[in-house]
């Protein structure tokens, strides 16, 4: 049957008229619901609270203080204007030398100084989005595929597939073993691709995981390296949450694994990094490709012409990251604040019988609402998600949008809002759970009366009131106040 093209399809390209960007998914629909009815503590108290955005705003006060104390770092201040002419005209796609040196040193510090990185292998990109796409272009042809353990970040479908024509093949991981990646799952996915005559070119790992907030242990990483070497395929390790680890177990970089493994083919190893999560700079669009393959470094550097980081941004970042005293303090304080926020939020969930996957990193938790599903299907998950969006007025992301193999899991972000908004969100969740229990007569995983739940939340409120509008609360930031 011959497809009849509409007028737009006749006039525009396939990319312009296809749905490959992935905007038509619950993940992005939640953002749209927030955009049309955003919560505001004064102007719109009944609005949707944004808990679908993995932004790290808990340490903005530290960054703002550093910027105020270091005006020469910006060429747009009277103190830094002397460098304006040189920085404004310089646009070599290799990047400023001081920028690449500072970023490589920062990557080492985030990884506990257990590994070293060569500044000459640092390749710039327009955020991790651009880094992933550039790597896909370098490593695979249209129709080739990468294996990706589930659940995984929905943006990968856009970043690696949309313009490259590459496929992503899910490697199913299950809650029975806390969604850990196994060799059996890898072999199964690889064999299925072979049967379907799909050429697998690589394995993509997100460590620490988005959306799980977990880190991969040494044994899992060693198995992954062994697997890709046996199959002679690439390993892309997305480590953009490396600096968000707030408790044990700690983060182990793939760089540490291969440094102790002389049998590994280094030409197969590539790292994607960014400053969006660890420093909270998503708007700066600082993405990094670090490849051990000379050919990939050369090609990706040429491709970076399409997504360069501005030299003004490079100059500021280089100056900030070169302040090692500040960097040490920032990383320690960020870890401490993330740990406290994670504890407050997960404790609030547990007091109404809602569990979450045990995690040690990230800006979110993997919330378990399987017991609240009317039916254990993805249709049941979507029904519950719509209630949470439109009735509870919280933008959380359903597990199906992360390609989770089991319905009932949701990612909820906790580091992009202030203390008071967290308290309001937890109150909304509490009321929703109580109403659901009263309406159905069903009990969640903890046998608590409504009075006991209310008393638990009263204690939680009192605990949070003690931290209200603390220095690490985003709403106390002049920058945020100016935007609201």
TrEMBL record:
<dbReference type="InterPro" id="IPR004839">
    <property type="entry name" value="Aminotransferase_I/II_large"/>
</dbReference>
<keyword id="KW-0266">Ethylene biosynthesis</keyword>
<dbReference type="GO" id="GO:0009693">
    <property type="term" value="P:ethylene biosynthetic process"/>
</dbReference>
<dbReference type="InterPro" id="IPR004838">
    <property type="entry name" value="NHTrfase_class1_PyrdxlP-BS"/>
</dbReference>
<dbReference type="InterPro" id="IPR015424">
    <property type="entry name" value="PyrdxlP-dep_Trfase"/>
</dbReference>
<protein>
    <recommendedName>
        <fullName>1-aminocyclopropane-1-carboxylate synthase</fullName>
        <ecNumber>4.4.1.14</ecNumber>
    </recommendedName>
</protein>
<keyword id="KW-0949">S-adenosyl-L-methionine</keyword>
<dbReference type="InterPro" id="IPR015421">
    <property type="entry name" value="PyrdxlP-dep_Trfase_major"/>
</dbReference>
<comment type="similarity">
    <text>Belongs to the class-I pyridoxal-phosphate-dependent aminotransferase family.</text>
</comment>
<dbReference type="GO" id="GO:0008483">
    <property type="term" value="F:transaminase activity"/>
</dbReference>
<feature type="domain" description="Aminotransferase class I/classII large">
    <location>
        <begin position="49"/>
        <end position="429"/>
    </location>
</feature>
<comment type="pathway">
    <text>Alkene biosynthesis; ethylene biosynthesis via S-adenosyl-L-methionine; ethylene from S-adenosyl-L-methionine: step 1/2.</text>
</comment>
<dbReference type="InterPro" id="IPR015422">
    <property type="entry name" value="PyrdxlP-dep_Trfase_small"/>
</dbReference>
<dbReference type="GO" id="GO:0030170">
    <property type="term" value="F:pyridoxal phosphate binding"/>
</dbReference>
<dbReference type="GO" id="GO:0016847">
    <property type="term" value="F:1-aminocyclopropane-1-carboxylate synthase activity"/>
</dbReference>
<dbReference type="InterPro" id="IPR050478">
    <property type="entry name" value="Ethylene_sulfur-biosynth"/>
</dbReference>
<keyword id="KW-0663">Pyridoxal phosphate</keyword>
<keyword id="KW-0456">Lyase</keyword>
<dbReference type="Pfam" id="PF00155">
    <property type="entry name" value="Aminotran_1_2"/>
</dbReference>
């Amino acid at each position: 049957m011959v497809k009849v093209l509409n007028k737009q399809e006749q006039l525009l390209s396939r990319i312009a008229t296809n749905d490959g960007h992935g905007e038509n998914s619950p993940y992005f629909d939640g953002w749209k619901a927030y955009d049309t009815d955003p919560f505001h503590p004064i102007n719109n108290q009944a609005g949707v609270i944004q808990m679908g955005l993995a932004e790290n705003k808990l340490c903005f006060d530290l960054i703002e203080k550093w910027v105020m104390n270091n005006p020469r770092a910006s060429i747009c201040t009277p103190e830094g204007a002397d460098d304006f002419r040189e920085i404004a005209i310089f646009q070599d796609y290799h990047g400023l030398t001081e920028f690449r040196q500072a970023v490589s040193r920062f990557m080492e510090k985030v990884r506990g100084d257990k590994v070293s990185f060569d500044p000459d292998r640092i390749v710039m990109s327009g955020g991790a989005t651009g880094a992933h796409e550039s790597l896909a272009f370098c490593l695979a042809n249209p129709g080739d595929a990468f294996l990706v353990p589930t659940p995984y970040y929905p943006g990968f479908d856009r970043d690696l597939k949309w313009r490259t024509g590459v496929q992503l093949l899910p490697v199913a991981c299950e809650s029975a073993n806390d969604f850990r990646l196994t060799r059996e799952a890898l072999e199964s996915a690889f064999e299925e691709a072979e049967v379907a005559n799909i050429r697998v070119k690589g394995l993509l790992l997100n460590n620490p995981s988005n959306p799980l907030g977990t880190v991969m242990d040494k044994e899992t990483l060693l198995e992954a390296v062994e697997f890709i070497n046996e199959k002679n395929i690439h390993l892309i390790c997305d480590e953009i949450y490396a600096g968000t680890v707030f408790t044990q177990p700690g983060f182990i970089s793939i760089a540490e694994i291969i440094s102790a493994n002389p049998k590994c083919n280094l030409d197969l190893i590539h790292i994607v990094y960014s400053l969006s999560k660890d420093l909270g700079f998503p708007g700066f669009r600082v993405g990094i490709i670090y490849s051990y393959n000379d050919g990939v470094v050369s090609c990706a550097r040429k491709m970076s012409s399409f997504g360069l980081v501005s030299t003004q941004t490079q100059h500021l970042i280089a100056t900030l990251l070169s302040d090692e005293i500040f960097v040490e303090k920032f990383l320690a304080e960020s870890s401490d604040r993330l740990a406290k926020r994670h504890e407050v939020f997960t404790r609030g969930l547990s007091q109404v019988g809602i569990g979450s996957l045990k995690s040690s990193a990230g800006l979110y938790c993997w919330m378990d609402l399987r017991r609240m599903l009317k039916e254990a299907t993805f249709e049941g998950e979507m029904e519950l998600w719509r209630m949470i969006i439109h009735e509870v007025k919280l933008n959380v992301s359903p597990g199906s949008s992360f390609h989770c193999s089991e319905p009932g899991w949701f990612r909820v972000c906790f580091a992009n809002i202030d203390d008071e908004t967290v308290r309001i969100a937890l109150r909304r969740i509490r009321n929703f759970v109580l109403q659901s229990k009263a309406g159905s007569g069903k009990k969640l995983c903890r046998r608590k009366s409504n009075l006991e739940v209310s008393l638990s939340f009263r204690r939680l409120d009192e605990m949070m009131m003690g931290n209200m509008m603390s220095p690490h609360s985003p709403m106390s930031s002049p920058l945020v106040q100016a935007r609201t």
